[in-house]
Amino acid sequence: MRKFTKSQKRDVRVIAGKKDEDIDFSDAPRVLDWSKAEIGKFYRPEKKPVTMRLDSDVIAWLKEDGRGYQTKANWLLRQAMKHFTAERGASRGRRVR
Predict the structure, then answer these.
(1) Rounded CA gap, 71 and 77, in Å?
(2) Are 54 and 43 in contact (CB under 8 A)?
(3) 97 in any annotated domain
(4) I need a labelling partner for 34 at 20 to 30 A (CA). Which of 16, 50, 92, 96 fits?
(5) What is the DSSP letter of 29?
(6) What's the number of domains the chain is made of?
(7) How far apart are CA 55 and CA 68, in angstroms?
(8) Is residue 48 assigned to a domain?
(9) Which one-letter DSSP state was computed for residue 23?
(10) Would you say residue 17 lies in a domain?
């Protein structure tokens, strides 16, 4: 996420200082149809810094596309987490003899 400019910071301070009833929403149309709303679209889980030891070739591969290698690593780990969580859930439903 980019940092705010001085002008944007000023605007945020001005808006934050207003009471809800003092903000003019007349130019914003009222949303009546929520059928295309996406749940969780803007949800961002809390991030925690960690230190990991990864193989140098894995780090090189993650970094080869440039910026965003940590986001890429997080996405890959999340996909693995979803896969293994779903797999574990499916295996709980089966009887093991």
Answers:
(1) 10
(2) no
(3) yes
(4) 16
(5) P
(6) 1
(7) 18
(8) no
(9) S
(10) no
